[in-house]
Design a protein that fits this description.
CATH superfamily of the largest domain: Reverse transcriptase/Diguanylate cyclase domain
Helix content: 25-40%
CATH topology of the largest domain: Alpha-Beta Plaits
Number of strands: 8
Largest sheet: 5 strands, antiparallel
Strand order of the largest sheet: 3-4-2-5-7
Structural class: alpha+beta
CATH architecture of the largest domain: 2-Layer Sandwich
Number of helices: 6
Strand content: 25-35%
Distance between the termini: 34 Å
Order of helices and strands: HHEEHEEHEHEHEE
Shape: elongated
Radius of gyration: 34 Å
CATH class of the largest domain: Alpha Beta
């Protein structure tokens, strides 16, 4: 009949205590909570039962890119308003006058003349800066040259009468095919992790066994994040703080990163 081994913290503790007592164990009352039909496994077998196989862990990264299908540009213009100081030092200076439709129209006209579609240009007063306004331009099949041409045309129109100064521009690129980019980024990350694992195993003088775990981590940064900027995501298209903004000199491409941690058994 095969033996029934009971792996319990109480049994292990009791076994070690009795061994340590030596001959004094004879004075210990011979009582046990283990049924007479069971036998406590030896300590070395308990250790083997709870030990985990040795593993090797490495992290890999992958970056997938594709030409952007859609671009969104945000332009900010601030009022060049310098009020005269009040004679009373306790009186705050007056706020600059709000930007009017007449102030904004030349910028919209310049963008349309440079190739933007009128219906895809929005301009509104900036609620965070008195007297200023913000312009949003959306267009398909962007190129680096077109982005720069649109920004230059808008800035020239806005500063023509010296009433406004440019507050910088932010551009975000979006794709119509996020699943393909995400799959490619993960494939590249897995290949990188496998390569690093092999190199680490060679250095350690061991062989790789089977793959036991894979974990993907979120990544963020200038060259793209884990989340793919989808052209069908309304928040990404409408919220300047939600999009992956890049420099105007950057190529008009979408970048998607993947970072994975893999663990292999060692042989």
């Amino acid at each position: 009949m095969s033996k029934l081994y009971i792996f319990s913290a109480a049994a292990v503790t009791a076994s070690l205590w009795i061994i340590g007592m030596g001959q004094a164990s004879a004075a210990v009352p011979q009582t046990t909570a283990v049924p007479q039909t069971a036998e406590v496994a030896p300590a070395h077998e308990i250790a083997q039962a709870f030990s985990m196989p040795a593993g090797l862990t490495a992290v890999g990264s992958g970056l997938a890119t594709a030409p952007a299908d859609v671009a969104v540009i945000y332009l900010n213009y601030y009022s060049n308003y310098y009020p005269q100081p009040s004679e009373n030092p306790n009186t705050p200076p007056p706020l600059p006058p709000a930007a009017t439709a007449a102030d904004i129209k030349p910028v919209i006209d310049a963008l349309v003349a440079a190739g933007a579609i009128a219906g895809d240009v929005e301009a509104n007063p900036d609620p965070n800066a008195a007297g200023s306004f913000r312009v949003r331009v959306k267009f398909d099949k962007p190129t680096q040259a077109k982005v720069q041409a649109l920004v230059a045309a808008a800035n020239t129109a806005a500063s023509k009468n010296n009433k406004f100064s440019t507050g910088g521009a932010q551009v975000g690129y979006f794709t119509n095919n996020c699943p393909a980019l995400e799959t490619e980024a993960r494939r590249l990350a897995m290949a990188d992790a496998r390569s690093r694992s092999s190199a680490l195993a060679t250095t350690a003088g061991v062989d790789l066994g089977r793959l036991t775990s894979v974990t993907e981590s979120a990544t963020f940064g200038y060259y793209g994040g884990t989340s793919c900027p989808s052209a069908t995501d309304p928040q990404g298209l409408q919220d300047p703080y939600a999009m992956q903004g890049v420099d105007l000199l950057s190529p008009s491409v979408v970048r998607v990163n993947s970072s994975v941690s893999v663990t292999y058994e060692m042989k």
